[in-house]
Amino acid sequence: MIDEAGSVPPQHVLCVLGAGLDLDVVARLAAEIGGPDCILDTEYSRPEPDSRMVASFRSSLGSPSFTDADRRAVREHDTVAYLLSPPATRQTAIEVSRRMLALTAALLRAGATAVRNESSGLAHGRDRWLDLADRAAATTDDPTLAVVLHRAWVKRPITDGVAVYSCGMHLLGAPDVELRAGPPTGPAEVDAQVRVLDALARYLLTEPRAGQIRDGETFALAADAPHWVLGSRGCARYDPDDLYRNPYGYWCLTPG
Questions:
Q1: Burial code of 54-74, b = ≥16 C-beta within 10 A, e = fewer?
Q2: How far is 172 from 89, CA to CA, in rounded Å?
Q3: Residues near 131 by Cβ (< 8 Å), separated by ≥ 6?
Q4: Radius of gyration in angstroms for the set of CA atoms belonging to the chain, rounded to a whole number
Q5: What pLDDT digit, counting tens, does each position of 96-118 carry?
Q6: Which of 20, 105, 189, 226 is spaced 20 to 30 A from 200 at the CA atom?
Q7: For residue 34, what is the DSSP state?
Q8: CA distances from 158 to 80, 127, 178, 180, 249 (A)
């Protein structure tokens, strides 16, 4: 659907905070759980606090899972580690994302106190990360795993005043989704738009026919629900070397 030439291959970049966090332990867990090509970025990882982290994590909260204890952990960190996953191609994205979620949980259990994904701008609270990782580990079928990974790595809703959209589907090997119906007028409309975004995203991740969708087809939550017209778009929001950039583009929903 989308020309992928010229884009940086999708890659998880995790920002991991801790107090007294041992960077050697972080590097070892990355190799053991993330795989041999998952590495600690030694250029930017430091055993010292970073004053930007409070604002960075505040801007990354996509759910109410971040507690007062999580906020305190960000304020009181004294170590920052950056971990780089292997490239997440269409063929490997689900497995890479599964491993990176398992790694996130292992790091939190080994002394890390907060984690943010720099490639989708999303952070969860400690308990939420651990719950998602446990769900992924217990999952025995691919569609359920894809839904858990969508909850873990995809930030939504984001709005630019014109569209409501997601960021992070490139980490799962799929286009992001956006809905163009004007800015939502209140919480109820936000929730309704998120339900549509999530339903389309999960269709893209779990249905074999998703790769055959064509411009002009329609999508709806139910036969008697509002119908939306699908249109493919390239990713013009981010530069080609931006970690947020989705080389697979977007499926855009407009009122039918």
A1: eebbeebbbeebbeeebbebb
A2: 8
A3: none
A4: 18
A5: 999 999 999 999 999 999 999 99
A6: 105
A7: I
A8: 26, 23, 9, 12, 16
Tens-digit pLDDT profile for residues 210-239: 999 999 999 999 999 999 999 999 999 999
The residue count for the chain: 256
User: If we measure between CA atoms, which residue out of 130, 147, 173 comes closest to residue 9?
Assistant: 173
> What distance in Å separates the CA atoms of residue 220 and residue 213, rounded to the nearest whole number?
14
How far is it, in rounded angstroms, from Cα 68 to Cα 58? 12
- Count Cβ atoms below 10 Å from residue 151 Cβ, excluding itself: 19
Give every strand in the sheet of 122-124, ordered side by side: 39-40, 79-84, 13-18, 112-117, 122-124
Tokens 């994302």 belong to residue: 97
Three-state DSSP string of 98-123: HHHHHHHHHHHHCCEEEEEECCCCEE
CB-based contact 115:107 (threshold 8 Å): yes
Rounded to 5 degrees, φ, ψ at 219 are -140, 140
Q: Count CB neighbours of 157 within 10 A.
A: 18
List, for residues 163-180, the tens digit of each pLDDT value: 999 999 999 999 999 999
The dihedral built from the CA positions of residue 108, 110, 113 and 116, taken in this order, carries a sign that is negative
Q: What is the dihedral of CA 212, 146, 107, 10, to 10 degrees?
A: 0
User: Alpha-carbon torsion 193, 195, 196, 197, what sign?
Assistant: positive
